[in-house]
Amino acid sequence: MKIGNNTNVPHNIEMTWPNKINIGENCSLENSIFFKHCGSWSKGYSIHIGDNTFIGKGCEFNISQKITIGKDCLIASGCKFIDHDHGMELSALMRIQKTINDEISIGNNVWIGVNVIVLKGVTIGNGAVIAAGAVVTKSIPENEIWGGTPARKIGQRT
Questions:
Q1: Which residues are designated catalytic?
Q2: What per-residue string of b and e applies to 8-23 under the rule 16 or more CB within 10 Å gives b?
Q3: Are the C-beta atoms of 12 and 31 separated by less than 8 Å?
Q4: Taking the alpha carbons of 42, 139, 124, 62 in that order, is the dihedral positive or negative?
Q5: SUPFAM superfamilies of this UniProt entry (predicted)?
């Protein structure tokens, strides 16, 4: 695990592969965060958190490919980030189908409200705001405000 200068990482976070986590400088992490890398061992980071970012209590990063979080972000408590899901073909049991993976990318200066879920393949643009409880299934442009299930545009930052 790579931890930048002046970053607060509590003692009770959980992780499966510490070598897959890169946390920038001046970050603040609260208790009970779970960093789960679902893939096999490999070199390089799959969870990258930019400088000056806050991550609230009880967040979960369930990552098989990669998540990148920019600088100066606010991620409230209880958020979940999942970059994969299962196939749903009728010809095979769901539990044995191949997973479908796609990276998550979060820009700089993004605010993600409490209990938001961000799913595979999503890019959240710089300056975007995601309302509490949203389920983000598609990419969000810069400086837009999104909310709901599934998330949709509800406003624009000015």
A1: 86
A2: eeeeebebebeebbbb
A3: yes
A4: negative
A5: Trimeric LpxA-like enzymes
pTM (global) more than 0.90: yes
3-class SS of residue 98? coil
Provide the residue-wise pLDDT of the chain in tens; the chain has 158 residues.
Answer: 999 999 989 989 999 988 899 999 999 999 999 999 987 777 889 999 999 999 999 999 999 999 999 999 999 999 999 999 988 889 999 888 888 899 999 999 999 999 999 999 999 999 999 999 999 999 999 999 999 999 999 999 99
DSSP 17: -
Type of residue found at 97: Q
Q: Tokens standing for 47?
A: 């969870």
DSSP state of 8: B
